[in-house]
């Protein structure tokens, strides 16, 4: 086997996958048009076969990485023989070619799974064919456009290793993986939406069959964005987690539209409204994942995360334009069959609030997209070079986020169709009361400024709303039985997983809003100079620089300072911020050290180079209140999503409808 | 039909904007090396043992320049393109060793002696190769990456800098310029 | 029937979003200019945040390691302005390097709170009598 070489072997697997996925399109399309069961079965098998071939190519790449086979181009350009095992494993998605291979593999996994488990409905054929089309693109990229399996002869003896920013933190092993799982997950509802249009059944079937897939994709995307922020916080050395950089923005755009979609599909499910809107949203979501990849991988917008340019940009642009024209064109063509017949009964209703929320989410997405593309537009028309900085995104989106928080409190309490004015008034009184009290407490504790106080107030409003929701569910059940509160509550939670899961997610959003508000509005960021051996007070803390150090491992050198952090005379921790230099890479990577506390973080970074005989160190000190709660909120949101996804004992997987009456507040 | 046309028009204008963005070229366009025609910084680095018989334990750039113009080639064992260009450098050395000195500098490759020896064996390299173990010289020369090749005139000024793998043709062309000047 | 509700809701939110976006853009659009572009129209950029790109003039760098104040002059060969930056110089900061500073002019001094070093390659200022290619300089720095 070694005679063949891993490179050609990997390429062979990719070409096989390409053949299978093209067959998936041909057999699927002809089978769907002619209603030929044998061809359709063959197309389903093509999905499974593509997955097997892609798995083989991934396995070959991992073998090449782990055995240091530098004759494979991707290994030669991104791996290093001396690296630890886990770094070698995740080097698969440390650079462009490998991560696109991973994307293609994950997609083939979903396609294969869908081929096996998707219920035999009239939608299946075209949905699988759409998956095959997307898959073909994602095989074509690693097979032809950005090939990771090129043969390098003679093979180098070692490689430079992955980008040091990625080697420097384990979180980078997780973030891209989650991101692609999210992107790929959202391909499934897109494929069913396309099928609904192609087969002329633009009703609600497509969306009911993919509800769980949507939630899975959304959950992964949420987790990916939060781990990305966390990684940025721990690695990039500026003590923040979100800089409104184009790379961050474009990962956020599909999340916004997917969140809107997640809510508006419920309106369609319940009220058979917004059919066209939902189709547009899911197409938009999928297109935005492609647009994001194009923008960040082509150098069209400048970003601090320099991915560089390459042949991948034009390829993604072409596919993005094809998808845009094809799918939106299809909607336009079928529009007469999509148009809603039902109408909004009353704006003050669940569907009314969901619709308003949708408009706000889209407005946020539009503002972010515009801000990201604005420098390009200005340069195209005037030749001026401009940047649109964080203040734009804060100013433009903060009021809209407040709107999201406001609606998040009201929406779930409103019944479908039309609200009972009396109940509504009662609820609103409680929520407003809680909000005002929370805002007053915030003011008493010294919070100033409209947005911090508004955020705390709206958090109170939302917590009251969640309490009312739970009381509304538990109290009537307590009356009829003899079960304890805990029994009733767990019984309710497990009988209404989607609803209870959504409450957990909404609670997570409240926690996150508070974390973001506190950590951005009350952040302290200073540079301090401390002599070695000296102590310096900083707010309620004191820093003592014990020593400087230099440590060498087999794959990097780190130089930094040992800093004791005291509060009220007692030692909290000893932090060791340093600067790492990875062998094979000339770039130095700041490696901050963070003390996580419930109320605030202490974040130390070396601001100027340190050597073992330095007499003083310059530290960047960032103290961000409540920032740990941003990550905790991420876990809460992920848990809520997972809870909503626990399969129900009743009903058929994926197509089951929520039990009647479960969502009456 | 109008709706379809509207969709197509929007797609086309988006495509136009992005296409312009692509064609505008990368904002990081390379500028010509600022070191051209300036004095290069000399170095004194340890040689691989096989060359020590001829040159002594270390090799000094300034000393060698008294004699002939010099081509300094930076390489590393992990660098794929370096393997492509090594035979070209060796071929140029065999032809022009009376007119010009080629110095190989192994850089950004800390502690890789055994691998470095294997590299030299593999291509039967006979021009002197030195070891820049702490990568100091690569910083002095403002290296973006390896391989890069510097053509230094006898007066110590830089004639030309080549980024990426070099070919025999390019070497011959620049050696002609070096010896003419 | 109640289609106007959709319409009203949509138009309302979109109009306010448009207003917010417009206001935010006019406040926080940061122009990227060279010293000579500033010299051509200083009034246009006063009291607004800009990104100033140029080359660090040799012999002008002073760093106070007690107060952590960095002072230097930035030039595009035609115009030169003093820059004051609070903080330590970044790793690759040196004379004749391309830099971009972000901040605003205060009494003829550019007060920066963000200093970026562009390229490890040293940019070559034009020799006497040679015209400077400002476009190329700007492209390199951005």
Q: List how many beta strands of chain B DSSP finds.
A: 7
| Class from secondary-structure proportions of chain A | alpha+beta
Strand order of the largest sheet of chain B: 5-4-3-6-7
Q: Tell me the span between the first and last alpha carbons of chain A.
A: 65 Å
- Biggest sheet statistics of chain B: 5 strands, mixed
Query: What are the low-pLDDT stretches of chain B, counting only 5+ consecutive residues below 50?
Result: 26-32
Topology, number of strands of chain A: 11
Oligomer: heterotrimer
Describe the sheet with the most strands of chain A: 6 strands, antiparallel
Mean pLDDT of chain A: 88
- Can you identify the CATH class of chain B? Alpha Beta
**Number of spatially distinct domains of chain B:** 1
Rg from alpha-carbon coordinates of chain A = 27 Å
Write structural notes for this entry.
The complex is a heterotrimer of chains A (665), B (181) and C (142). Chain A contains 20 helices and 11 strands. Chain A has 665 residues and is α+β, with helices and mostly antiparallel strands. Chain A has 4 domains: 1-162, Up-down Bundle (Four Helix Bundle (Hemerythrin (Met), subunit A)), CATH 1.20.120; 177-417, no CATH class; 418-520 and 641-645; 524-628, no CATH class. In chain A, strands 3, 4, 5, 6, 7 and 8 form a 6-stranded antiparallel beta sheet that branches. In chain A, strands 2-11-10-9 form a 4-stranded antiparallel beta sheet. The radius of gyration of chain A is 27 Å and the shape is globular. The model of chain A is unreliable at 651-665 (pLDDT under 50). Chain B has one domain: Glutaredoxin (3-Layer(aba) Sandwich). In chain B, β6 (148-152) and β7 form a beta hairpin. Chain C is 31% helix and 34% strand. Chain C has a 5-stranded mixed beta barrel with strand order 2-4-5-7-6. Chain C is elongated, with a radius of gyration of 21 Å. Residues 120-125 of chain C have low confidence and may be disordered. Chains in contact: A-B, A-C, B-C. The A-B interface holds A 70, 73, 76-77, 80, 152, 154-161, 294, 298-302, 308-309, 313-314, 317, 321, 324-325, 328-329, 331-333, 335, 373, 376-377, 379-380, 583-586 and B 3-4, 6-8, 10-11, 14-15, 17-22, 24, 26-28, 76-80, 82-83, 108-110, 112, 115, 118-119, 122, 135, 138-139, 143. β1 (386-388) of chain A pairs antiparallel with β1 of chain C.
């Amino acid at each position: 086997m070694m005679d063949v070489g891993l490179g050609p072997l990997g390429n062979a697997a990719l070409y096989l996958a390409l053949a299978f996925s093209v067959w998936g399109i041909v057999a699927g399309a002809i089978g769907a048009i002619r209603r030929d069961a044998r061809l359709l079965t063959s197309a389903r098998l093509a999905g499974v076969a593509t997955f097997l071939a892609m798995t083989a190519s991934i396995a070959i790449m991992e073998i090449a990485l782990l055995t240091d086979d530098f004759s494979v181009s991707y290994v030669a350009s991104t791996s290093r023989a001396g690296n630890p095992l886990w770094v070698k494993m995740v080097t698969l998605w440390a650079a462009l070619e490998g991560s696109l291979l991973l994307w293609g593999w994950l997609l083939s996994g979903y396609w294969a799974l869908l081929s096996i488990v998707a219920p035999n409905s009239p939608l299946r054929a075209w949905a699988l064919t759409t998956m095959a089309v997307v898959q073909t693109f994602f095989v074509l990229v690693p097979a032809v456009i950005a090939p990771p399996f090129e043969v390098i002869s003679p093979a180098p003896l070692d490689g430079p290793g992955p980008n040091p920013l990625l080697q420097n933190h384990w979180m980078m092993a997780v973030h891209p993986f989650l991101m692609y799982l999210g992107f790929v997950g959202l391909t499934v509802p897109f494929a069913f939406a396309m099928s609904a249009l192609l087969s002329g059944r633009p009703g609600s079937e497509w969306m009911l069959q993919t509800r769980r897939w949507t939630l899975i994709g959304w959950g992964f995307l949420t987790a990916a964005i939060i781990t990305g922020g966390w990684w940025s916080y721990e690695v990039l050395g500026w003590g923040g987690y979100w800089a409104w950089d184009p790379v961050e923005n474009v990962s956020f755009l599909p999340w916004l539209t997917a969140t809107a979609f997640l809510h508006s599909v419920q309106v369609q499910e319940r009220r058979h409204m917004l059919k066209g809107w939902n189709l547009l949203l899911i197409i938009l979501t999928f297109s935005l994942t492609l647009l994001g990849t194009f923008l960040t991988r082509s150098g069209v917008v400048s970003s601090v995360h320099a991915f560089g340019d390459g042949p991948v940009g034009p390829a993604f642009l072409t596919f993005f334009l094809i998808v845009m024209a094809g799918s939106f064109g299809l909607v336009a063509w079928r529009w007469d069959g999509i148009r809603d017949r039902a109408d909004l009964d009353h704006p003050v209703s669940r569907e009314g609030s969901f619709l308003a929320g949708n408009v706000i989410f889209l407005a946020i997405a539009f503002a972010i997209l515009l801000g990201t593309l604005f420098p390009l537009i200005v340069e195209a028309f005037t030749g001026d070079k401009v940047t649109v900085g964080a203040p734009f995104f804060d100013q433009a989106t903060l009021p809209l986020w407040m709107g999201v928080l406001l609606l998040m409190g009201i929406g779930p309490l409103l019944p479908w169709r039309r609200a009972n004015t009396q109940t509504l008034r009662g609820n609103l009184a409680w929520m407003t009361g809680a909000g005002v009290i929370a805002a007053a407490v915030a003011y008493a504790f010294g919070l100033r400024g409209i947005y911090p106080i508004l955020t705390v107030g709206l958090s109170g409003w939302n917590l009251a709303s969640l309490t009312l929701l739970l009381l509304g569910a538990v109290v009537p059940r307590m009356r009829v039985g003899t079960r304890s509160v805990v029994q009733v509550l767990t019984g309710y939670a497990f009988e209404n997983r989607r609803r209870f899961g959504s409450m957990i997610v909404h609670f997570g959003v409240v926690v996150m809003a508070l974390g973001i508000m506190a950590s951005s509005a009350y952040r302290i960021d200073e540079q301090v100079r401390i002599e070695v051996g000296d102590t310096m007070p900083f707010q309620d803390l004191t820093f003592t620089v014990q020593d400087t150090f230099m440590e060498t491992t087999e794959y990097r050198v780190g130089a930094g300072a040992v800093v004791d952090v005291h509060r009220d005379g007692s030692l909290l921790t000893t932090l060791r911020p340093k600067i790492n230099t990875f062998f094979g890479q000339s770039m130095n990577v700041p490696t901050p050290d963070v003390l996580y506390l419930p109320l605030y973080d202490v974040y130390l970074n070396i601001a100027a180079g340190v050597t073992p005989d330095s007499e003083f160190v310059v530290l960047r000190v960032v103290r961000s209140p409540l920032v740990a709660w941003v990550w905790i909120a991420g876990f809460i949101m992920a848990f809520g999503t997972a809870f909503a996804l626990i399969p129900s004992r009743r009903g058929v997987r994926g197509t089951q409808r929520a039990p009647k009456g479960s969502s009456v507040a | 039909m109008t709706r379809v046309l509207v969709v197509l028009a929007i797609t086309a204008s988006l495509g136009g904007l992005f296409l312009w963005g692509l064609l505008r070229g990368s904002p990081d366009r390379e500028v010509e090396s600022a070191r051209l025609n300036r004095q290069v910084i000399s170095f004194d680095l340890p040689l691989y043992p096989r060359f020590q018989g001829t040159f002594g334990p270390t090799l000094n750039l300034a000393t060698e320049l008294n004699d002939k113009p010099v081509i300094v080639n930076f390489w590393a064992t992990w660098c794929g393109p370096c393997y492509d260009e090594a035979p070209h450098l060796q071929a140029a050395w065999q032809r022009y060793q009376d007119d010009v000195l080629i110095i190989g500098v192994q850089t950004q490759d800390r502690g890789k002696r055994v691998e470095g020896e294997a590299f030299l064996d593999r291509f039967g390299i006979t021009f002197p190769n030195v070891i820049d173990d702490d990568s100091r010289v690569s910083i002095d020369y403002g290296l973006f990456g390896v391989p890069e090749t510097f053509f230094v005139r006898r007066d110590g000024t830089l004639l030309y800098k080549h980024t990426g793998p070099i070919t025999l043709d390019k070497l011959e062309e620049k050696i002609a310029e070096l010896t003419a000047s | 029937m109640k289609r106007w509700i959709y319409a009203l809701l949509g138009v309302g939110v979109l109009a306010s979003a448009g207003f917010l976006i417009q206001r935010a853009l006019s406040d926080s659009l940061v122009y990227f200019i060279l010293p000579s572009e500033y010299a051509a129209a200083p009034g246009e950029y006063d009291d607004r945040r800009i990104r100033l790109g140029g080359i660090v003039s040799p012999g002008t760098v002073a760093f106070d390691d007690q107060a952590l104040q960095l002072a230097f002059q930035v030039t595009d060969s035609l115009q030169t302005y003093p820059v004051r930056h609070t903080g330590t110089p970044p790793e690759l900061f040196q004379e004749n390097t391309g830099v971009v500073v972000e901040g605003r002019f205060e009494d003829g001094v550019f007060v920066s709170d963000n200093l970026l070093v562009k390229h490890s390659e040293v940019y070559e200022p034009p020799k006497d009598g040679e015209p400077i290619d400002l476009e190329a300089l700007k492209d390199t720095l951005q």
